[in-house]
Amino acid sequence: MMQCHKCGHEWTTPKRVKLPGVKESCEHCSAYLHCCLNCRHYDPGQNNQCRSHTAPWVADKEGCNFCDEFDFADSDATAARDAGEGQARAALDDLFGASGEPTDDENLDRFRNL
């Protein structure tokens, strides 16, 4: 399902049109749809925040752009990937213990048990 990055409203389109136009905006919140934040290549951890190495640098990730590499992100695939990351994180926490710092009460109990 193709959704607006800002409000989550589903983008519906005629069957022949596969991508939003460059200046097309969300009918619910008026955010641009043809933008980096809606693209499947967008990744804040990558160089230029994009997985595509041929895409041009885009400074405004929320603004409309003319990138030829744009491909609307599938929110179902993104949700499945995020769920997989959550499962991996839970498995690591089970293996190595929770990554959170102990509370003051826990530290006090440890001190008293010395």
**H-E order:** HH
Q: What percent of residues adopt helix (DSSP H or I)?
A: 25-40%
Q: What is the CA-atom radius of gyration, in angstroms?
A: 21 Å
Q: Which stretches are poorly predicted, pLDDT < 50 over at least 5 residues? A: none
Number of helices: 2
Structural class: mainly alpha
What proportion of the residues form beta strands (DSSP E)? under 5%
Total number of distinct structural domains: 1
Globular, elongated, flat, extended or rod-shaped: what is the shape? elongated
Number of DSSP E strands: 0
Distance between the termini: 56 Å
For the sheet with most strands, the description reads: none
Average pLDDT: 82
Structural key phrases:
114 residues, mainly alpha
Question: Overview of this structure, please?
Answer:
This protein has helices spanning 75-96, 104-113. With 114 residues, it is mostly helical. It has one domain (1-97). The relative contact order is 0.14. The model has no long low-confidence stretch (mean pLDDT 82).
Topology:
Elements: H1 75-96, H2 104-113
Compose a concise summary of this entry.
This protein is an all-alpha fold. It has one domain (1-97). The chain has helices at 75-96, 104-113.
